[in-house]
Amino acid sequence: MTKIELAQTEDSILSFEISDEALESAGWNPETYPGAIAVYGSRYLGKGRHAKQSLAAYLGGRSLSLVMLACTGHYITDTVTALKLFPRTLLPSLALETTGFETDHEITAKVLARGLRIVEVPVSYFPRSKEEGKKIGLADWFIGARTFWRYRRG
């Protein structure tokens, strides 16, 4: 049994015990991912666009992955996933400056600039429409791209 204290990007802190089997089934293997510091859920690993996800949202998210690659030299399939887990002690050390949707991109860029690893694991995804509360849009894409550029070196 492994005890983990994690911070999630939705401003909640999780402290729980998780079985090593559960970690392994989520793709966590210290031998396969030595030095990994964060686990990101990816809606796209082994899958394409969800049938109910808008094409604009899909292309926006996937293209931000390419922007991140250009800025940081690292590729992650789903940079805008809401499912990001970090050791709780990491976040305060990042000296975060942003407060909006771009905070996820600031965290990712700063983690990678420190030479830390991010592991992606597949997650289930049920997209929301604007009517159902989806708030992110095209302006956020430009803010995200600018954030990756701004924090590419930490």
What does this molecule look like?
This protein has 154 residues and is of the alpha+beta class. It has one domain (2-127, 135-150). The chain is 34% helix and 20% strand. The protein is built from five helices and five strands, in the order ββαβαβααβα. The protein has a five-stranded mixed β-sheet. β1 (2-8) and β2 form a beta hairpin. α2 (55-72) runs parallel beside α5 and α4 (103-113) runs parallel beside α5 (138-150). The longest helix is centred in the middle third of the chain and has 18 residues, at 55-72. The chain is globular, with a radius of gyration of 15 Å. It starts with a strand and ends with a helix.
Distance between the termini: 34 Å
**Outline type:** globular
The total tally of domains equals 1
| Low-confidence residue ranges | 8-19
Assign a percent range to the helix content. Answer: 25-40%
How many beta strands in the DSSP annotation?
Answer: 5
Average pLDDT works out at: 79
Order of helices and strands: EEHEHEHHEH
Strand order of the largest sheet: 2-1-4-3-5
Q: Count the DSSP helices.
A: 5
Content of β-strand: 15-25%
Helices and strands: which structural class?
alpha+beta
Q: Measured on Cα atoms, how large is the radius of gyration?
A: 15 Å
Main sheet, how many strands, which sense, barrel? 5 strands, mixed
